[in-house]
Fold:
Amino acid sequence: MAQLLDPAGVDGPEAAIERAAVALERGRLVAFPTETVYGLGADASSSEAVARVFEAKGRPAGHPLIVHLPDDLDLGVDSPGLSRFARDVGPAARALAEAFWPGPLTLIVGRGPEVAPAATGGRDTVGLRVPDHPLTLALLRRVGRGVAGPSANRFGSVSPTTAAHVIDDLGPAVDHVLDGGPCRIGVESTIVDTTGSEPVLLRPGGIAAVELEAVLGHPLRDDRGGPSRASGMLASHYAPDVSVTLIAVDQLDHELERGAAPGRRIGLIAPFEHGHQPGWSLPPDAAGYAARLYATLRAADRAELDHLLIVPPDRGTLLDAVLDRLTKAAAPDRVNTI
Ligand code: TXA
Ligand code: MG
Structure:
């Protein structure tokens, strides 16, 4: 099937959703919008469909995918809906799902019967989330099954926050792109592992740890520094092609002077208005900064820079997630596994 960028506006969102649903049911790859980043979806119960996701993305087979669920599942105790996809869902997972789904929170729980082992890289746990985007929720309700989907970029590069980014990265490897406009949050979901004796934060993301702690009633153990348990935790992840240095605002003049040389192009991304060219000014609050970060990193890659300086934001609820992604973008040992 030819790749189809579906703007969901030509003949109405219902028709676009129907086309995407039929493609998923036929085992094809459908890129879909979420509030965080675009996902590259396949029927989570089909190992053949899931294998195509790994192939299109260039992702190593052992790296588990997140399974996206519709919002009309009953989350209550012994709910037949959730038990199709999950087992051993404890009270902490239930409380977090109840409070934050649909939303940017992925919960690691036991893998249920409708998730193909290939989707989780053979693990007996699965990351589940109900995304908060009207088009994708309508699609998930229509198909009535789990949709396994990593971010819709080549493995190791920056996640896509528009349909055009998906096409730039994956091109004809995707069968269908459901265009839902730019992603509202712009960084990936927060991941919490609930399979152990206490919930553990694996990846900071669209929901701040303090919000999760308010629901749990206790501090969340942070295991980011621990052994790399998930692909998003590799230091090389979320990296643009250009080399990056993170700097504090009071180092700015010094760094620009130090990097200056005839013909050398130093780019600057900073959370304030500045006149530097090539450069990009982002909002001072981490949430506003997050919403534009990945598109800006892509623009910086296109600007043929020799080096990119980034001043992080210093406040806002999504500060943790933004600092995490920026640190990875600047990791000296990063290898873009494209
Ligand atoms: O916001 C998001 O989470 C986006 C949208 C599309 O939902 N998805 C996303 O997927 O970021 P991906 O594959 O790029 O990152 C998923 C992360 C990876 O680091 C993966 O290793 C981890 O979730 N993960 C998935 N299942 C897991 C499991 N069973 N145990 C531990 N980590 C898991
Ligand atoms: Mg990703």
Remarks:
- The radius of gyration is 20 Å.
- The mean pLDDT is 90.
- The chain is about 30% helix and 15% strand.
